[in-house]
């Protein structure tokens, strides 16, 4: 965008958008209003798309058959219990208290199920809206968090609005916010943890610069030496550890987020010490790394352990009686969970190994219902279909993959820390799954990648709209052409989301309408 910040003046090749942007930058009051209004409007859009007719379908969709019932028994007993074999039909009909007292072997930590259970307690366990309200609110919050993270990385309201807007209208984000599964909670806490990590980086580096001076300056008198100082006052890093612990308390894959943030904290500190001229910067960074570990990991462990409090203080949970020591019993239980995860190779019609995810080969069908002409009021000759699929907006998804590749190249050329954060977010949500090619996993796990993919798209679009390969602002006809390409891309994305929305939310549509959404044979 052309603005007074860029130091550019409008000319014959200046687009209307650049002229508006320049005017906004010249009016601080207008800019403040836009800075407030943009995230509010994007979040409201996300809320409408996620909350509209949230209770439809009134059925246990896909793995809701596990998580909804587990959440309700956990809310009542403190642990997830077993249910009768035919409990689903009765539960949907309103018979929600048929849970048994015996502990059920659940393979994910309890935090997301506490949140799902809270929604059921507020709206009633027989309400399908109650099953899903917590997921819908988490998905809406994630859109806002993407805005805040992108704004913090770019200092651009436009870039942040584009990134969060793409997630607001993307099918993967919408679908995972409208079903009571665990992954949207994992995603929310992961994005929040990265936001805290970025805030920590900025505050820590500022503090580092004020506390250290080159040898011979007054800083050496203060005893800081050539290693540089050790900082313990890092509240944002503690917050990042707590939220990464919360992500892990939803699914163990949150551990990758914790590891990525810890690695980033150490590397960014080391590079800053080297840039500042700290003579023994490697040893100084190692010393700070130990402090960072102490600030980050114990709080993450405490949050994770706290999520198990219901299991720990009651007697009926699975494996709870394995030891008289509740913590030892919990360790035994965790060994059983680990064995389950590493040995999970059962065939499934919608299984999709991680190498397929970038290609979008096999999305997950979560709900399917078909009526023939004349049944249930169906008036279409081809029949009526209600479908919920985890397929994202293809243009956002494939654009995100292309943008990620572009950001890798741009990072090599620019060494821009902001691009590193985005790439680390994508990598922590994707790369570990490549290590388990035989395990039964699903495409909808990619919801944890989606926030960082849309930020990658926004950064790439900004470059297309007017920056060269080194990130420098360009002018003239090339900039105008780039902006037009960006507008065309965004317009087509919006149209595709409108086209796909009915099959993301289970709206009744003609069978032929549903069929034309299946661009690849593997999408059926």
How is this structure best described in words?
The chain is globular, with a radius of gyration of 25 Å. The protein has 524 residues and is mainly α. It has a three-stranded antiparallel sheet with strand order 1-2-3. The chain has helices spanning 16-26, 28-51, 64-77, 87-93, 111-123, 128-154, 157-169, 171-176, 183-211, 218-221, 235-248, 254-276, 281-306, 309-313, 326-342, 394-414, 417-430, 450-464, 477-504, 511-515, and strands at 365-371, 384-389, 509-510. The chain has a domain at 183-307. The longest helix has 29 residues, at 183-211.
Compact overview of the structure:
60% of the residues lie in helices and 3% in strands.
Topology, please?
Blueprint: H1 16-26, H2 28-51, H3 64-77, H4 87-93, H5 111-123, H6 128-154, H7 157-169, H8 171-176, H9 183-211, H10 218-221, H11 235-248, H12 254-276, H13 281-306, H14 309-313, H15 326-342, E1 365-371, E2 384-389, H16 394-414, H17 417-430, H18 450-464, H19 477-504, E3 509-510, H20 511-515
Antiparallel strand pairs: 1-2, 2-3
Helix pairs in contact: 2-6, 2-7, 3-5, 5-6, 6-7, 6-9, 6-18, 7-18, 9-11, 9-12, 11-12, 11-13, 12-13, 12-17, 16-17, 16-18, 17-18, 18-19
């Amino acid at each position: 965008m052309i603005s007074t910040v860029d130091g550019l003046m409008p000319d014959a090749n200046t687009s209307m958008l650049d002229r508006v942007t320049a005017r906004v930058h010249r009016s601080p009051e207008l800019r403040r209003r836009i800075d407030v209004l943009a995230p509010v409007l994007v979040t409201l859009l996300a809320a409408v798309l996620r909350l509209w007719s949230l209770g439809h379908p009134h059925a246990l969709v896909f793995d809701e058959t596990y998580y909804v019932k587990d959440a309700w028994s956990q809310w009542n007993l403190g642990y997830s219990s077993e249910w009768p074999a035919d409990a689903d039909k009765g539960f949907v009909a309103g018979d929600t208290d048929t849970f048994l007292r015996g502990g059920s072997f659940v393979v994910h930590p309890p935090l997301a199920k506490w949140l799902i259970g809270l929604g059921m307690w507020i709206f009633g366990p027989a309400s399908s809206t109650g099953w899903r309200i917590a997921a819908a609110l988490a998905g809406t919050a994630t859109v806002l968090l993407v805005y805040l993270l992108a704004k913090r990385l770019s200092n651009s309201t436009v870039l942040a609005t584009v990134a969060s807007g793409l997630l607001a209208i993307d099918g993967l984000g919408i679908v995972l916010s409208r079903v009571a599964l665990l992954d949207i909670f994992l995603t929310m806490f992961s994005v929040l943890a990265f936001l805290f990590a970025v805030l920590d980086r900025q505050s820590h580096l500022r503090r580092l610069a004020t506390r250290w001076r080159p040898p011979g300056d007054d800083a050496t008198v203060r005893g800081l030496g050539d290693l540089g100082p050790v900082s313990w006052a890092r509240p944002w890093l503690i917050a990042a550890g707590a939220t990464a612990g919360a992500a892990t308390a939803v699914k163990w894959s949150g551990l990758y987020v914790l590891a990525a943030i810890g690695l980033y904290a150490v590397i960014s500190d080391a590079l800053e010490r080297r840039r500042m001229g700290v003579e023994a910067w490697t040893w100084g960074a190692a010393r700070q790394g130990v402090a960072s570990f102490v600030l980050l990991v114990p709080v993450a462990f405490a949050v994770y352990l706290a999520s198990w409090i219901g299991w720990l203080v009651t007697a009926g949970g699975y494996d709870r009686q394995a030891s008289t020591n509740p913590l030892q019993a919990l360790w035994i239980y965790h060994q059983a969970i680990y064995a389950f995860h590493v040995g999970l190779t059962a065939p499934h019609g919608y299984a999709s190994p991680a190498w397929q995810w970038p290609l979008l080969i096999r999305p997950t069908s979560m709900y399917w219902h078909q009526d023939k002409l004349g049944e249930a009021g169906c008036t279409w000759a081809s029949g009526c279909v209600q479908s919920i699929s985890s397929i994202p907006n293809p243009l956002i998804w494939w654009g995100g993959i292309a943008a990620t590749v572009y950001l890798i190249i741009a990072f090599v050329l620019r060494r821009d820390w902001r691009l590193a954060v985005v790439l680390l977010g994508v990598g922590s949500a994707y790369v570990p799954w490549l290590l388990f090619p035989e395990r039964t996993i699903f495409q909808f796990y990619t919801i944890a990648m989606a926030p960082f993919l849309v930020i990658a798209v926004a950064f790439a679009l900004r470059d297309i709209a007017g920056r060269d390969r080194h990130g420098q602002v360009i002018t003239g006809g090339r900039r105008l052409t780039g902006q037009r390409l960006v507008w065309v891309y965004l317009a087509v994305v919006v149209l595709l989301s409108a086209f796909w929305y009915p099959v993301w939310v289970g709206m009744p549509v003609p069978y032929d309408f549903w069929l034309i959404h299946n661009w690849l044979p593997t999408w059926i």
